[in-house]
Amino acid sequence: MNAVTGALFRTPPLLLAAFAGVLGVTGFEPFGLYPLLIAVLALLSVLWRRASNRRQAAAIGFVFGLGYFLAGVSWVYVSLHDFGAMPALLAAVLTLVFCCILAAYPAAIGYIYFALGPRSSIATLAVVPALWSLTDWVRGWLFTGFPWLALGYSQVPASPLAGYLPVVGVYGVTLATALTAALLVTLWSSQRTVSNGTLNTTVTGRPTRTRWLSACLLGALWIGGYALLQVEWTSPTGAPVSVSLLQGNIPQDIKWQPDRIAPTLAAYHDLVVASRARLIVLPETALPLFLHEVPPDYLAALAEHSRRNGGDVLIGVPETSSTNNYYNSVLSLGTAPTQTYRKSHLVPFGEFIPLKFLFGWFFDVVNIPLLDFGRGDANQQPLEVAGQRVAVNICYEDVFGAEIIRQLPQATLLVNVSNVAWFGRSVAPRQHLQISQTRALETGRYMLRATNTGMTAIIDQRGRVVKSAPEFATGSVDGEVQGYAGATPFVRFGNLPIILFSLLLALAGGWLAIRGTSKLRDFPTR
User: Fold this and answer.
1) pLDDT tens digit string along 116-168?
2) Does 270 fall in a domain?
3) Which of 57, 346, 365, 401 could be cross-linked to 351 through a Cys-Cys bond (beta carbons 3.0 to 4.6 Å apart)?
C-alpha cells in the first residue's frame, strides 16, 4: 500500500489534480460512482496539504476544477457549435473560458485552506467542507447562477447522504460529502508520521484519539443520513392521477425549419389523442410556433380530447404579450380554466443576452431561435389541473431548488418540461435527470419530466425513477402518480439554515486554525 501511495504522489501534483477533476465527474450520472467522488475530494485535500505554498495550492484547486468542469459541462460546446452554429474555435474558446471561471471556486478553497495551515485538523474538518458548501451556493446565484455539478447532486438517490436533502437541501449534502472526504483524510493522516522520510504507523497518543473521533463522526454522519431516508416528510393527498409524459424526439437542427412545423404539430397531436391519461404533459416549446400562430382548431382538438379524459394537457409553447415581449411558457387546456406558467429564470446567452452593450456581438455569431425572452413573474402559483396543484418549471429552472419551493407547500406535484436536444448525445440529459431527482427528494413530491429527446421520466417522492423513456425515441411515459401535501424542513426554510451554518463553521474553524487552539492534534503532511 505504501508503495502505491508513494508512486501516486510522485506524479506531478498539477497533473494528478487535473486527472482527479476529470475522474470526479464519474461520481455523477450517467456513471453514478458516488463513492469515487468522495475519494477524489480526499485526494485533493491531500494534494493541498502537500503544496509548498498558497499559490501552488490555488493552482492545484484550479486545475482540479478545470478538469472537473471541462469533463462535466463540455456539452456547452455542443449547444454553441453543433446547434447554435457558432464557429468551432470560438465555441471551444468560450467553453474553456467558462470552465476557467468555474475553476476559480476550488482554486479559492485551496488558497484559503493553505493560508490557514494545511496541517490543522480544524482547517481540514471544518473550513474545507464549509467552503465547498458556500462556493457551490455562490455558484448557484452569482451572474444568474450555474450550480450544475454541485457536489451534493452526486449522492442522489443511492447514497445514505441523500437522506439530508429534505432537511438541508443539496448544499447541505455538499457539506456532508466534503466532510466525509475530510474525515477519511483525517483517518488516513492520523496514523502516519514522518521519520527520516519513511512513513510509519502511529498507534498511541492523540493520533489514536483523533482517529476514533473521526471514525465516530463518520459513522454518525452516514447512519444519520440513512435514518433520515426512512422518514416520510410528506403525506399522500387525494386520489392518484393517471399521467402521460410525451417525448416527440424532434431533432434540434430541424425543429424550427418552416417545413417541419406541420409534421411536428401532427406528431404531438397523435401522441396526445393516443393517451387516456387525465394529465398529459408536452415538452418545452413542443409547438415550434408562437401561441397566436398555432391554428385555433389544433388547440381546440387537444382541449376537447383532454376534456374527454376528464383532465388537462400542459403544452410547452412560446407566447407573446401585449408589451411585445415573448415568453417561454406552459399553457393548460382541458377541463380546468386555461392557465399559463412563464419561465422566470432564463439561461444567459441561451434565452437572453446579459449586458448587451458588451455582449451584443453574440447575436451575430450564433443561430439560436428566440434569443431574447422576457422573464415571467418570480412568484407564480401552481396550475390547478387534473385535480392536482402542479408546480411547473421549465428546463434549467429545476437546477435552483430555492426557486422551486416558491410554489410549495401549495403544489402537490412537480412538473419539469425540457428540450435537452440542445445537448446532443452528451452526459447532460442524465445529469439533468439526477437534478430533478434531487428536487423530488428535497420537496417530498413526485417530479414529472417531459422532454423532447430524453430523459422523460416519472420520479417518485423519494427521488427514484419509477419509469422512463429511452433517449432519442418517440413515445410516452404513462403511469399513475400520487399527489403529496406537507412541507419538508427544506421547503419551510430553504437554503438559509445550511448557508448560515456553513458560514459560521468556516469562520469559527478559520479562527481556531489561525489561533492554533484546535483540540485535535495537528497531523504531519509528509
Assistant:
1) 987 678 888 999 999 999 999 999 999 999 999 999 999 999 999 999 999 99
2) yes
3) 346
Q: Which of 29, 284, 403, 442 is catalytic?
A: 284
pLDDT at residue 522, rounded to an integer: 44
Q: Which domain holds residue 339?
A: 235-487
**Cell numbers of 186, please?**
483525517
Do 224 and 310 reside in the same domain of the chain?
no
Is the whole model's pTM more than 0.90, yes or no? Answer: yes
Cβ contact 247:284 at 8 Å: no
216 is catalytic: no
Both 309 and 438 in one domain: the answer is yes
For the ranges 7-21, 244-258, 324-338, the lowest mean pLDDT is seen at 7-21
- Residue 99 a catalytic site member: no
Domain assignment present for 116: yes
> Which residue is it, cell 383532454?
306
467 and 389 belong to one structural domain: yes
The pLDDT score that the predictor gives to residue 521 is: 44
Residue 526 confidence class, pLDDT cut points 50, 70, 90: very low
The answer to whether position 339 is within a domain reads yes
Q: What is the CATH classification number for the domain harbouring 417?
A: 3.60.110.10
Residue with cell string 431516508: 229
Evaluate whether residue 123 is within a structural domain: yes
Going by pLDDT thresholds of 50, 70 and 90, the confidence category of residue 360 is confident
Cα-only R_g, the chain: 25
Shared-domain flag, residues 157 and 59: yes
Q: Cα–Cα distance between 40 and 148 in angstroms, integer?
A: 18
Whether 284 sits among the annotated catalytic residues: the reply is yes
Query: Residue 151: what residue type?
Result: L
Same structural domain, 270 and 354: yes
pLDDT tens column, 167-213: 999 999 999 999 999 999 988 876 654 333 444 444 444 567 778 88
Using a pLDDT cut of 90, give the percent of the chain over it. 79
Q: How many domains does the chain have?
A: 2
Q: How far is the C-alpha of 231 from the C-alpha of 472, rounded, in Å?
A: 37
Please tell me which residue in 29, 99, 319, 343 is annotated as part of the active site: 343
Return the pLDDT at 154: 98
Sheet holding 465-468, edge to edge: 383-385, 388-394, 413-418, 447-451, 457-459, 465-468
Whether residues 157 and 291 fall in one domain? no
Catalytic position from the list 351, 395, 397, 403: 395
Query: What would the grid cell of residue 507 be?
Result: 469562520
Residues 289 and 256 in one domain: yes
Examine the domain organization and report whether 200 and 129 are in the same domain: yes
